[in-house]
Design a protein that fits this description.
423 residues, alpha/beta, Metallo-beta-lactamase, Chain A, Rossmann fold, 7-stranded mixed β-sheet, 6-stranded mixed β-sheet, 21 strands, 32% helix, binds zinc ion
Length: 423
């Protein structure tokens, strides 16, 4: 291929960086942080002063894709979805309250020059390269695949994706595959030279397919019997938050969140109008008032007491935290038969796992948490389908995976297997 592709830190989950260049231009897709618990927790050096980068595109707002954004000099344009921008800013602002560095970061991001919002199916021209984003199903709300066109060659970079979220299967149609067929390969009329795909689940054997819809159903059934629930979940996992909120609504219950998450949910609500779906409306989400005994002013105390009465009468889902500050909420409702749901990756609470988190483990143990979780990443059969549909003419590269060839027993035709390059 004439277009040069360089993948940094591809053999780890997280720390995503892909460099695509022609003789004139150089693009970077994602500039993420290595995740704790991976083999490589250090971050690769990148010489921004001498690399001569023309633009950086972000697939979505997860830290392993966008976490090192601050290092990018301000004269280099960065491209991301509008929701990604707003979610990042909200995270910085929320953390600013207890952290001066975060306050500076929020200020810097609000004023950063050269931030451009991308739109699905809208081309961005960077010199002799054209980048077209396509919206894709993932646990993050505003996620994109990128089709890069340079010379006469096409490269498809998937970012993180799946087909089992609320935007995966709609009315029996596999949406990511339909988008790839219709817009990217144009039903086989456009030849894709290289596919760069995520492969998170390739080393996670024994995963059985469990979709957001399955989880919504299970949560609905669970909430019929269990009216008082603590839920430990990632604040940016919009699909699973929506599953639990909808299940709660079906049972006449509300979801109670802190101020930060309430602001985050407002961003999702506004953006969801675009998707024309009720799934992300979050109509039954309310900010959890401080415990009445903590309220100094009488009106605040009355407001908190009224909320507590409603919560005890109708039931609740409270978004929980493993931090010590959550203990007072646990104590406040200690007289009720509260159940705790853990809806994050099992690796964080599995002793001996590289990503083991003691605080989270202790919280789950103390509250006797039960698991209800669906992966943010494509199952192996979805990755295989994407490979078959894209059917790249030259090369297949995996990123965001610890798999090397002996792990990946891919169920794809031999011709495509021969195009997989692991290094
Ligand atoms: Zn992600
Ligand atoms: Zn990721």
């Amino acid at each position: 291929m004439k277009t040069k592709v360089e993948i940094l830190q591809g053999h780890q989950i997280g720390g995503c960086i892909t460099i695509i260049s022609t003789e004139q231009m150089k693009l970077v897709i994602d500039f993420g942080e290595s995740l704790p618990g991976t083999d490589n927790v250090s971050n690769v050096d990148f010489d921004w002063q001498n690399e001569n980068v023309s633009g950086v595109f972000f697939t979505h707002y997860h830290g392993d894709h966008i976490g090192r954004m601050e290092e990018i000099p301000e004269d280099i344009p960065i491209y991301m979805g509008e929701v990604t921008y707003k979610v990042m800013l909200n995270i910085y602002q929320a953390l600013s309250r207890h952290d001066d560095n975060m306050a500076k970061k929020a200020e810097w991001f609000r004023n950063r020059k050269n931030v451009f919002f991308i739109q699905p199916d809208k081309e961005e021209r960077i010199g002799d390269m054209i980048v077209t984003p396509y919206s894709v199903d993932h646990s993050a709300f505003d996620s994109y695949m990128f089709l890069v066109h340079a010379y006469d060659e096409y490269i498809l970079h998937t970012g993180d994706y799946r087909d089992h979220g609320h935007r995966g299967y709609v009315k029996g149609r596999n949406i990511p595959l339909a988008v790839i067929q219709k817009y990217i390969t144009r039903y086989g009329r456009r030849k894709i030279n290289m596919l760069i795909t995520e492969g998170t689940t390739l080393t996670r054997s024994g995963l059985s397919r469990y979709t957001e819809k399955d989880m919504l159903h299970d949560a609905d059934v669970f909430f019929r019997e269990n009216k008082y629930v603590f839920l430990k979940i990632s604040s940016t996992n919009v699909d699973s938050l929506a599953s639990f909120a909808v299940a709660a609504q079906r049972n006449g219950m509300k979801m109670y969140v802190n101020g930060y998450l309430k602001a985050q949910i407002k961003i999702y609500q506004k953006a969801s109008i675009k998707y024309n779906t009720k799934m992300y409306m979050f109509n039954n989400v309310e900010k959890l008032q401080p415990a009445p005994v903590k309220c100094k002013l009488k009106p605040d105390r009355i407001k908190a007491e009224q909320q507590r009465l409603r919560m005890r009468r109708n039931g609740f889902i409270i978004i929980a935290s493993e931090k010590p500050s959550f203990q007072q909420t646990i104590d406040e409702f200690a007289d009720l038969p509260v159940k705790t749901i853990y809806s994050m990756w099992r690796g964080y609470i599995t002793p001996g796992s590289k990503a083991f988190n003691q605080e989270l483990y202790d919280f789950c143990k103390a509250t006797n948490a039960m698991e209800m979780h669906t992966s943010g990443h494509a199952y192996k059969d979805c990755i295989e389908k994407v490979i078959e549909v894209v059917a790249p003419s030259e090369e297949i590269r995996f990123i965001h995976t610890e798999a090397v060839n002996e792990f990946a027993d891919l169920n794809i035709c031999q011709e495509l297997k021969n195009k997989v390059r692991w290094e």
